[in-house]
Amino acid sequence: MKTKVLLVVLFLAGILFEVNAQESKNETIALEYIKSHAEEFQINPKHGFKLHFVRKGKAGETLRFQQMLNEVPVFESEFIVNFNNKNEVAFTSNSYKKDIQLIDTSPTVTKEKVIAITDDNLNYNGAVTLQETKLYVYDFDGVTKLVYRTITHAEDLVGSWEVLIDAKTSEVISVKDVSIRCGKECKEDHTHDFVNKVEKKKKKVFSTVEKNNAFAFTTGTAMVFLSDPLSATAVPYGGQYVDGNDATNASLDAARVTVNLPEIEVLSGTYKLKSSYVEIKDIEAPNKGLFTQSTPNFLFNRNQDGFEAANVFYHLDNNMRYINETLGVNCRPYLHSGVLWFDPSGFNGADNSRYSGAGNDLSFGEGCVDDGEDGDVIWHELGHGLHDWMTGGSGLSQVNGLSEGCGDYWAQSNSRSLNQWTPADAAYHWMFNWDGHNECWGGRTTNYGATYPGGLVGGGPHTDGQIWSTTLMKIWDVLGRAKTDTAFLEGLALTNSSTNQNQAAIAVRQAAINMNYSCADVKVMTEKFSAVGYTMPAIPLTINCPGTQTVNADGSGNYVLPSFISLTNAINSNCDATVTQSPAVGTTVGVGSHSITMTANGSVNCNFTLVVEAALGNEGFIKASEILLYPNPASSSITIKGEFDNLEKIQVYNMLGQVVMNGVISGNETTLNVSKLSNGVYTINFLDSNVSVKFVKE
């Protein structure tokens, strides 16, 4: 098997620098915006703001400013300013804490003492996998304190344990697990599981330093569930399709499929579930190893622990490739050089799973149905990570169960794309088809009937989050997976740690506007969000022009302007804007570059460049009227016919003037696959003949 050696460290460093760079030419403009709106946001002039995260994405550039008091960060308090792709301030949100009092921010307790107090309170025995201590200004119900916040992970600590200690008095303020837990309603309270141990801890340090070797990746295979055995076979839980204490049988074995693993690590003949996106780790008890082996084929039955390892690895790696490569959305962990760590056998064996923001890692439990066997659980927990990474590690909100709803949406979006259930099946809307909806627990749904805000029960984030996930899936049903997923992710980048569902809906719609979604698409979002009770503000009129258009003059060096209205996207609440063009349709222009202005409702305009090139000779020339293109509109493929003298090069442009496909027509008839294109109007440029033909993808 051919092995490819990748300079992964350099590759990842480049990506993370672009996404997480903490410098921006818009920093001064953004700070001026905050300053000019200080009265509106009730900003105390003695509070400062420091740029701590910059994200450049498909919806523009988003700057996140940390609230500061005497150079000490205020916990979970920031101001977000988003610039659209025209470099205009398009959206802001904030979790600014205006009631922070002016206190002395010089600690009198040392970090060493803080760590000792932390360890005594947690009283763990296993190896430490992560421990960090940072100084913050905290708001405790109107009382401002200077505190040390220590996050500790250890092999025998289930979760991500936060200890807050007063930096002036060394008083322990709180001890709690801050990991985002489970793809289910949590019935067990683990808050004190590992606090009251009586044996003396023997602290060990778990090394996360890797050898500085070039990672060698090759391809492999694995046997997995897509997305679970019930969905794969469209059967209910029961009979042979039960957990059976992790036992396997012929039916469950038959529900597995063989998948390709684009990258797995191979070093000295040893293969490991590690790629440039995902890596297996032993983070929590039970310690079952990393399932390395001497073959690249990870072929296990479900009664083997290696099955969960391979299953989780495949779904995480495949999903991260879909996000970053297919959707083109930069979204990776901000720790571990952008590689997601996961433990397929963690949580001390309990029936629970979690995401940790402090460790940027995932851990899957094993009680009842092993969580690592259900794609919905895997995608749900990944959804928490995506929420965290898109907001730079400071904006993961659980207000109204937002992040739980995000996790459920992300799981359902992936599950629904497999087309395993029909809309007539109850399981079509179910979350956790294999792990839940059985004697293990009740599961959840994305067909939840409650509306916002009256339907919020406040009893737990998982229940309320179903309003958010259900609404997003209603948009998904109309716009499709790629558009909805992209707007969802880019919208999350505009949110903060106190964002509620209504504010998230506005952010997702704004991301779609920034990305120049059609007005019809934006209107669908407005209607679906409004129908469930979210209050959606009116959309200010915007207009987006196509990119540079290049055409050929006639034999006399002239070109008559056609209408460019169909290539122009005017967006307002009712999608009823009137677009005009200057110079007007029918105007004759000569060879050269011309500025075309498109105006909506006589008030808002945009410009693009029309390049008119001199006409070519008659050799190899074919007129647009001589080209036959069908069917038009097309859904999956189009056939192109014409009397082409030679191999004809073509380029397909979208409404923004961006090249989305390249190809060559061989002979006088060619079929072009357009199934992966988004719905809309496209232009095929025949480069050798210098003519263009439009078609509609639906």
UniProtKB/TrEMBL annotation:
Domain called Secretion system C-terminal sorting: residue spans: 629-692
Pfam annotation, one family: Por_Secre_tail
Signal sequence range: 1-21
Keywords: Signal
Domain of life: Bacteria
SUPFAM superfamilies: Metalloproteases ('zincins'), catalytic domain
InterPro entries, alphabetized: Secre_tail, Zinc_Metalloprotease_M4
PANTHER family xrefs: BACILLOLYSIN
UniProt name for this protein: T9SS type A sorting domain-containing protein
